[in-house]
Design a protein that fits this description.
By secondary structure, the chain is α/β, with parallel strands linked by helices. It has helices at residues 6-12, 38-52, 77-87, 100-108, 131-143, 179-192, 212-218, 232-238, 253-264, 312-323, 344-355, 365-373, 388-395, 401-407, and strands spanning 18-22, 29-30, 33-34, 56-60, 92-93, 114-116, 150-153, 175-177, 199-203, 224-227, 269-271, 275-279, 288-292, 306-310, 327-331, 359-362, 383-384. It has a 6-stranded parallel beta sheet with strand order 5-6-4-1-7-8, with helices on both faces. α4 (100-108) links the parallel β5 and β6.
Length: 421
């Protein structure tokens, strides 16, 4: 069964109806200020389309990982305030998830009004492994819509979770796929189906253990894997290089060794760095030098040195591979991009993606944060995913519970006469 779309809902008519929208507002905060509003901007088109059509929009979202109870550090207030600024309209915030405040605010919504519920993870039932507990919260959320409500899932960053506001709610209301989710699935299907070749995958981030399944799956599809970030040192160690005090997952060496063997046997190429920026400490102002991978402990800091970025020779080589590709997927920074001295590898990869004439996909999470922090615009890339974990699980070949739930949701009511006119 194919999931119904936002267009289907708009055709059915939404004026005067409460529509629950699961959005992804999990944005980084610094002392209560949103430091990257990319996910809020990505959520707005669906929210405003519904509001403009007269819906009474009730937005559900999470932020961070509170312990199943209210925590001011994870309030959605900063996100709601930023949404109001970007939308140029009032956005109200309920004082709870589905309690008295949420019920009162939802009931008071006028046509075209927007209400954000407080962080759904303030209610422990949202993430409970007990189906009955999640179902109870989902029922309370559905009740906010009255007798003629609908549900739209536009939070791709959460569709890999079997949570009440993502999975269980879809069994209670006519449910629809938001345009953001639809766009993500379309792009990712192109990466796993018949991508234009050459197909290059750039993987970074701190731990290789976080990417094992996606590496295994993409080795069967991609032409080339470029390995950077902290995970590269496990690959270098598997090749027999000494890596000093750099991040290393000893327990993953057998798996990585097998990946390298498979790559050498044919099929997908695995390209590792040839030089590394080695530093005296994990600090923005740490002394550092560029060393070849076969001599990483030969510098001023010996075996105590740790790698914090790929080197300039590697950056140029990776950029050349990217510019020559017809399809590129990038997930994970090349180094500690938060420190200027160790951001050059990540910047080189981002620049190369902007210069590519093929499909370029930035795989969410730290990669998306990095390109914005380094001054790039979203429009310079083919697609910036809003769901790091969800993107990886899709590329691993796993079923996404939130997507499957939409395909099994209750039937929508027949379109109203004149709806959508």
């Amino acid at each position: 069964m194919t999931a119904k779309t936002l267009d289907d809902l708009l055709q059915a008519g939404v004026a005067g109806r409460h529509v629950l929208v699961r959005s992804d507002l999990n944005v980084p905060l610094d002392d209560g200020t949103v430091t990257d509003d990319g996910r809020i901007r990505a959520s707005l088109p669906v929210i405003t389309a519904l509001a403009d059509a007269g819906a009474r929009v009730v937005v559900m979202a999470h932020l961070g990982r509170p312990k199943g109870e209210p925590d001011p550090r994870f309030s959605l207030r900063p996100a709601a305030e930023r949404m109001a600024e970007l939308a140029g309209r009032e956005v109200r915030l309920a004082g709870d998830v589905a309690g008295e405040s949420a019920r009162r605010e939802a009931a008071a919504l006028a046509d075209g009004g927007i209400l954000v519920l407080e962080n759904v993870r303030f209610d422990a039932r949202e993430t409970s492994k007990d189906e009955s507990e999640r179902a109870a919260l989902a029922a309370e959320l559905a009740a906010l819509t009255g007798g003629d409500g609908a549900y739209v899932d536009d939070a791709f960053g959460a569709v890999h979770r079997r949570h009440a506001s993502v999975y269980d709610i879809a069994a209670l209301l006519p449910s629809y796929q938001g345009t953001l989710v639809a766009r993500e699935l379309d792009v990712l299907s192109r990466l796993t189906g018949e991508p234009e070749r050459p197909y290059v995958v750039v993987l970074g981030g701190s731990k290789v253990s976080d990417k094992l399944a996606v590496i295994d799956n993409l080795m069967q599809r991609a032409d080339t894997l470029l390995i950077g970030g902290g995970m590269l040192f496990t690959f270098l160690k598997a090749r027999g290089h000494e890596v000093g005090a750099s991040l290393l997952e000893e327990d993953q060496l057998p798996v990585v060794t097998e990946y390298l063997r498979r790559a050498e046997a044919g099929g997908c190429r695995i390209v590792l760095p040839t030089d590394i920026v080695m530093a005296s400490a994990f600090a923005a102002d740490a002394e550092h030098e560029v060393l070849p991978v076969d001599a990483l402990t030969s510098g001023a800091h010996g075996a105590q040195a740790l790698g914090l970025d790929i080197g300039p020779e590697t950056s140029r080589a990776f950029a050349e591979e990217i510019r020559g590709a017809r399809t590129v997927f990038w997930n994970g920074p090349m180094g500690v991009f938060e420190f200027e001295a160790f951001s050059h590898g990540t910047r080189a990869v981002a620049e190369a993606l902007t210069e590519s004439s093929g499909l370029t996909v930035v795989g969410g999470g730290d990669s998306a944060a990095a390109v914005r922090r380094l001054g790039f615009e979203d429009a310079q890339f083919g697609h910036i995913s809003t769901g790091g974990g969800a993107s990886l699980e899709y590329l691993e070949g796993k079923e996404l519970p939130g997507v499957a739930a939409l395909e099994q949701s209750p039937s929508a009511p027949a379109p109203q006469a004149g709806a959508g006119a």
